[in-house]
């Protein structure tokens, strides 16, 4: 596709405008160039190179093992496949907790790999790192509620913000993220009532995952969305059966080769 024919790149101000006119923002995770191109052609607004890369494609049991080098490879691939969507890359565990300086250094590498913004987990406790990254000229998307990198401290994938005290803490996190300079925030596994209140309070867009329908946008892990596996979280929804279609295609290929039906003369030189 030539530059003149490419669709307009989604920018931060477009996302803000979408919030202002109550136009829902679409976001999917993505980890490779082929899938990025498909989602780009589907007009998905944002692609998240998530550290869920570890669970979905690398076979890790959690996101905690994902390295910066692995994220850099995936980010580069997605950025080369996407010409419209706004590309956000996760800062993996261990690449920003030590200090704001470490956070900026890691963020710079992801931007050089092709990301337009970075995402990190945590609210009040990460405000200094968010500010340092944004002061360096790099857009940040926050991530509060259930934060997978902190699953051991949180006791596993549990809803965050139930009860007045817990809800107040999540709201404080959201406000802290905005005040530190973030351009948006992901709300994961937060009660819909709390997510709706946060969305009204904040000027920056909110992107929900398991946070109800009152957020400015929604994000899903693409393998859950497309039905690539037999299990998906209760807050997710399968919009296709890609896994079954891929299995059927592989089975048909295998049967054709075993029976010598493929290749035939039309596939030979």
Helix share of residues? 40-55%
Tell me the number of helical segments per DSSP (H or I, 4 or more residues long).
11
What sequence of helices (H) and strands (E) makes up the elements? HEHEHHEHEHEHHEHEEHH
Q: Determine the mean pLDDT.
A: 95
Terminal CA distance reads 30 Å
**Regions with pLDDT < 50 over 5+ consecutive residues?**
none
Q: How would you describe the overall organization of this protein?
A:
An eight-stranded parallel beta barrel has the order 1-2-3-4-5-6-7-8, surrounded by six helices. α2 packs across α4 and α5 (100-113) crosses α6 (127-135). The protein is built from eleven helices and eight strands. The longest helix has 17 residues, at 242-258. It starts with 11 loop residues before the first helix and ends in an 11-residue tail after the last helix. It has helices spanning 12-20, 33-41, 53-56, 68-81, 100-113, 127-135, 151-154, 164-179, 192-201, 222-225, 242-258, and strands at residues 25-29, 46-49, 86-90, 117-121, 140-145, 184-188, 206-209, 217-220. It is an alpha/beta fold and 269 residues long. The protein is globular.
